[in-house]
Automatic annotation (TrEMBL):
Residues 440-540 form the Sec23/Sec24 beta-sandwich domain. Keywords: Cytoplasm, Cytoplasmic vesicle, Endoplasmic reticulum, ER-Golgi transport, Membrane, Metal-binding, Protein transport, Transport, Zinc. It is found in: Cytoplasmic vesicle, COPII-coated vesicle membrane; Endoplasmic reticulum membrane. This is Protein transport protein SEC23. GO terms for biological process: COPII-coated vesicle cargo loading; intracellular protein transport. Gene3D superfamilies: beta-sandwich domain of Sec23/24, Sec23/Sec24 helical domain, Severin, von Willebrand factor, type A domain, Zn-finger domain of Sec23/24.
Amino acid sequence: MDFVELEAIEGLRWSWNAWPTTKNEVSSLVIPLSIMCTPLMQSTELPLLPYDPQICTHCAAVLNPYARVDYLSRIWDCPFCYNRNHFPISYSGIGETNLPAELFPTYNAVEYKIDKVDSKFGSNLHLGYCWSNGFSSSNVSLSSMSVGTPRNIGGAGAGGEVRGFVGPVPAFVFVVDACMVEEELRAVKNELLLVVEQLPENALVGLIAFDAMVRVYDLGFSDCSRVVVFHGGREVSSEQTQQFLGICSTKWGQQQLGKTPVIQKLGFLLPVSECEFNFTTAIEEICSLAVVMPGHRPQRCTGAATSVAVGLLEGCSVNTGARIMIFTSGPATLGPGIVVDSDLSDAIRTHGDLINGHAPNYTKSCSFYNQLSQRLSDASVVLDLFACSLDQVGAAELKGPVESSGGFMMLGELFESDQFRKCLRQIFSRDEDGYLKMYFDATIEVVTTKDVRICGALGPCVSLRKKNSIVSDRETGEGGTYKWKLGTLTNKTCIAFFFEVCDEQRAEPGSAFLVQFITRYRHGNMGVRKRVMTAARRWAENKSPEITAGFDQETAASVMARLAIYRAERFLARDVVRWMDDSLICFASKFGDYIQEDPSSFRLSSNFSLYPQFMYYLRRSQFIDVFNCTPDETAFFHLMLNREGVVGSLIMIQPTLLQYSFDGPPVPVLLDVRSISADVILLFDSYFNVVIHYGSKIAQWRKLGYHKDPNHENLRKLLEAPELDAQQVVMERVPAPKLIKCDQHSSQARFLLAKLNPSVTQNSTFIDGSEIILTDDLSLQDFMDHLQALSVKV
């Protein structure tokens, strides 16, 4: 079974592709029943249908290829709840040779384009398409299924004049740290000016600068620069923010996705077309007004500035898609969300401080940002963090709202770097139709057959706490619901969903069960779309070969990694490692072939054999072993793993290693110290770092300039090949990984050596000149020997 091909069709990866029928049998599998779902996975075969989906009146499932259809009566039976539903009059021509696209057997995933604007806000833009407008089984054309144009909106008055905007528009509030050094601040200003030039003319923009005070710029006042100033040391509520800004708030919390509100606007949030000159002027005027005392950090009120930005968007009722983008170069030293005191004698918190309770501000700041997370979710606002500093900036405290809103986080060293410019431009890139590649205000709803229960989800989502009969009482991650909210998502955003079996009425082995994911979101043109993915699998008897054949060890490793970091954020690392080890021993004991008490007889079949190896590298990874990592770095690593798909997650867990030599094209080699050789080049990819490692001989030849000699053309090509491949990886990945070039035995080689299996150490018998790793860590072979010995015990 090719799980990658299945994922390309369904957008799903299952840890188990055949499920047992009872809870006891499921618990014995060790790895939970889970699905890695990429809601908006790109596909060339995805039909885009310009009409509303047919929804079951009982369970709210969407019509799909597994439904049974009575063509004469124009009735379809829901495969989830078996409720009978009538087709509308527009389906009068349905027949076995005239099917709507959603009933095609090959279309497990379809997308509906629902472009409706409420008549009280403007003209109705719904095009009135139905499935029969040329979408029959005989003449369906995917290219013809894309319709619609960008919408235009009204403007806002300058100087506080209130006018209504017709139609949903994206809003962007840029929150700039004015305490940056001059060169860094200039780099941020230049990039923001470029970004605003690229925005659609109807996009709303706002600007906030902060140091010891929070300054909200009135972009609609042209006579001079006018700002509203908030004290950075005080926590300001949403109502107070709106009162100070003079904003008349509406009940945005009661709005629903697809219901377009009239957005009341003052000069603090204006369309680009009306304020581009004022925005440019305001950007250029940003500078720090705070005086930095000797021996102190700058007074920086990041939390207060973020809270004010949320209050601004709440008051303007922009609940159809907005982003708050923070650009900072240091930790908050003032007000809510404080990370460290301004006195430089107070060191910023470390992992040891967090474990021992020596970080007095951490708990209170996390509590403040968790409250902010709920406000962000209610207002459909995304929080992005761009932090460039040689020290920590407080990303660990900010991780909650950034992750729950689906926001972007970048940790770098300099805003003048290519990494920052590339990340920002990638976020504001456009698709082939000229729309921003941004998807806002999404919800994901899961529908299952009656024998399956939903336990929860792990990823950049928030539980909406909506329960029905298929929601389990046992919660995993964001649970207690069948529906989740996402502030934003991309084509690569991946969420892990967890399930359990309800054995009140035991399912019949061999029969099928269904799971449907319904993702509703706003496209870059701010039109509402609904992606529906439906998948079927079969129930299997306990110990059936179908269960073992359907095990996807790559997905299982990704799921267990998410569970491990979920635990790591709540328990001590040693307890997490103990849980991982216990789970692995139980897993190997159940699925291994062995004679009891005889470790040498232990064997794992091919579709289980890689899983222990993945767990070995996960134990040693920066996700679990936080030694030499700051809390900010750990928060960043966890956030990235929690939204990455199976392939990206595996690279983070077990990095890839390619060998380049004169013997032929590059080949994958073991992630082992024995792979290092004097006459080869290694390309190492750990997702966050890409390392080009030159063997000692290759490095010497390069230093002598042999590659410049026409007689040594092969050497030149050998040196170029890994660099081209490395550049390709860096270009495709956002945020861009750090590219490191190093020679064998150099200090930078530590980035590679730290991740390799230490099969040769200072305690091993080795040949002179071979590479060794100075460590007391267990090698993979020793780890497997211990696993085998424990697994075969009675």
